[in-house]
Write a structure and sequence with these properties.
Layout (H helix, E strand, L loop, with lengths): L1 E7 L3 H10 L6 E4 L16 E2 L10 H19 L4 E2 L3 E5 L2 H16 L5 E5 H7 L9 E5 L3 E3 L1 H14 L3 E3 L4 E7 L2 E6 L4 E9 L5 H7 L7 E11 L10 E4 L9 E4 L5 E4 L3 E2 L10 H14 L8 E12 L5 E4 L6 E5 L9 H14 L25 H10 L6 E3 L4 E2 H9 L7 H8 L12 H12 L23
Parallel strand pairs: 1-2, 1-12, 2-9, 5-14, 12-20
Antiparallel strand pairs: 3-8, 4-8, 5-7, 6-7, 10-11, 11-12, 13-16, 13-17, 13-18, 15-16, 19-20, 21-22
Helix pairs in contact: 1-5, 1-8, 2-8, 10-12
The protein binds flavin-adenine dinucleotide (FAD).
């Protein structure tokens, strides 16, 4: 079959665009090189809904950020993705930084955002009592918030699939040809898909995809950000996201509550060789601890439950690249989507769909499009008595698999079955939080493996942590 559109990359950009395209009568396929969706930058980032004061006025980033905040909050609610409008403070620690705060305020006004004000250090500490005594001024941003980035991606792809989109996992686009207005995308495994329109949403590899079509007019410069995530015991240190004044390298090390009640500190910003870079370094984590403690003294870093790295897909121009190829008809690049790409994802999807329409894609409304997704957390959100009644009918919800995060067998089985289906331990973790707690899966991983094995009809030895050769066990004892 020839699809109307093939999207390369199942991050939040590709996922949200697929969902947007399903509002029209179109045949859409998403190709993803990993064993699951949300495995690139959309998995490992700060999860902040940025207010829009930072992008340079007049850029696409500034425009889509200003438009994107409300769209993101609305869409997350429709998709039952955890989101909270908690606000943020950008803190100045010197007179020079206080001047920058005033500049950011002016920039925010130019970008057309509301709910921003400059406050004194004392006012900032009144709002956030654990803030450093050294903070002398702050930009208060009421409209910003926090969201779970991987759940948003999973939900966007899932909703697109529920509305008819297809997803091909373990499909690494390696060769692309174009003949007679039809693209053929060939994977590393020799599979192929055909489409009339091709959309490059490959994140850190979007320049490589452009290169496959001899259309590389931009270059991705990967920049890594290291984080430390702390236990829920530290989760109430701050109620808003605490930023430092941004620099050329990015928005700096923040301290933020997460939608799940943890405390997040990070990221650093360092050039790395590859978008695949995942390691954390002693120097990076030291920098995170030092700067986070400088903003919010007293954070107990003994509460760190995990550290991780995310890689930004930056480009030297500094702006998003969302434009049709000048060379290859039918090819749309949605590239260089670094921060605030998560905040802008719905606005980016709408803008990209508009570009496709201008490129000639016939877009006839799909009256059956369902913008909502069933709540995957319905059981978690029930009252105790409602849970008890539910368990009488569905006993698998009464068997707790992950004790740290209180996740039941029923919720895990549901997560395996729902679009986009998952086949590995990390996929379960991102969908249900089983393994996300203090023990990081030390106790529940064997139970999760058993469920994955039963649901997907594969032997335990074939269950992986995150696809490829990441097997959890090597063989059965005695065999
Ligand atoms: C450290 C850090 C902090 C950030 N913080 C924030 C924040 O707080 N707020 C905010 O708004 N934004 C933030 N961002 C930016 C945000 O994370 C990104 O803009 C967003 O996740 C980009 O999504 P994407 O889908 O474009 O890219 P990705 O999520 O990287 O997805 C690209 C996908 O393409 C796939 N792919 C690549 N090559 C191929 C191929 N050949 N064939 C098939 N598939 C392929 C990859 O496997 C990947 O799944 C942050 C980013 C980082 C790294």
């Amino acid at each position: 079959m020839v699809y109307d559109a093939v999207i390369i990359g199942a991050g939040v950009t590709g996922g949200m665009l697929a969902r947007e395209l399903m509002k029209y009568r179109l045949a859409v396929c998403i190709c993803e090189k990993e064993n699951d969706v949300a495995c690139g930058a959309s998995k490992a980032n700060s999860g902040i809904v940025h207010g829009g004061y930072d992008p340079v006025p007049g850029t696409l980033k500034a425009r889509l950020n200003a438009a994107g905040v409300e769209k993101l909050f609305e869409t997350a609610k429709l998709l039952h993705v955890p989101v909270k409008r908690c606000g943020s403070l950008v803190c100045a620690f010197s007179e020079a930084e206080a001047t920058r705060i005033n500049e950011l305020y002016e920039r925010g006004l130019k970008n057309g955002i509301s709910g921003i004000s400059v406050i004194t250090g004392a006012e900032a500490r009144k709002a956030e009592p654990n803030l450093s005594p050294e903070v002398c001024a702050a930009l208060s941003v009421e409209n910003s918030g926090i969201v779970c980035p991987y759940e948003l991606t999973i939900a966007a792809v899932g909703n697109a699939m529920d509305n008819g989109a297809e997803l091909k996992l373990n499909f690494e686009a390696e060769k692309i040809t174009e003949k007679g207005g039809v693209f053929t995308v060939i994977s590393k495994n020799g599979e192929s898909v055909k489409a009339r329109y091709l959309i490059n949403c490959a994140g850190g590899y979007s320049d490589k995809i452009a290169e496959l079509l001899d259309d590389k007019f931009f270059e991705i410069i990967p920049r890594a950000g290291e984080y430390m995530l702390l236990d829920k015991t530290e989760g109430s240190r701050v109620s808003r996201t605490i930023f430092r004044v941004p620099t050329k390298e990015g928005k700096g090390v923040l301290v933020s509550p997460t939608v799940d009640g943890n405390l997040l500190t990070g990221p650093t910003s360092a050039a790395v060789a590859s978008a695949e870079s995942r390691e954390t370094t002693p120097e990076g984590l030291d920098t995170v601890a030092r700067l986070a403690s400088n903003s919010v003294p007293g954070i107990d870093f003994r509460g760190v439950i995990t550290s991780f790295t995310g890689v930004r897909a930056s480009e030297k121009g500094g702006d998003f690249i969302i434009e049709p190829s000048k060379r290859v008809k039918g090819l749309l690049h949605v590239a260089a989507i670094d921060s605030p790409g998560l905040t802008c994802c719905v606005a980016i999807a709408e803008y990209a769909a508009e570009q496709l329409k201008n490129m000639g894609l016939r877009m006839e409304k799909n009256p059956e499009f369902n913008p909502r997704r069933e709540n995957p957390h319905a059981f978690r959100e029930m009252t105790d008595s409602a849970k008890n009644e539910y368990i009488k009918i569905h006993p698998e919800y009464g068997r707790i698999v992950c004790r740290c995060e209180t996740v039941s067998e029923g919720e895990i089985r549901d997560a395996v079955r729902r679009n986009p289906k998952t086949f590995d331990i990390d996929g379960i973790k991102r969908r249900t939080r089983a393994g996300m707690g203090r023990c990081q899966g030390g106790f529940c991983a064997p139970y999760v493996m058993k469920i994955l094995s039963e649901e997907n009809g594969i032997p335990m030895e074939k269950v992986t942590k995150n696809g490829g050769n990441s097997y959890m066990v090597s063989e059965r004892e005695g065999e």
